[in-house]
Amino acid sequence: MITEITKAQLLAWRLGTLANRGRATSAQISMAKRNNVAMAIEIAREARQIHGGMGITNEYPIMRHMMNLESVVTYEGTHDIHLLITGHDVTGLEAFK
Question: Which CATH number describes the domain made up of 2-91?
């Protein structure tokens, strides 16, 4: 889990550096959002699984984090839309209009 979190942090740091220089593109932002939200949800699910039955109780904040992350998928743009934006950037082909 720590390896995936560190990779996501590095991606966010690099994107922030590019944004500060005015060089971040919307496709790069979509790629980072898609990757980091998916990774965070996967980490939260794995943490819930590790905790077994206690992972769904109020004793640990795992379920609250998972619910917050599920809402991020919606308000940050869906996983599929970010994939279409990234695909357009890579191929130059419009998958939507």
Answer: 1.20.140.10
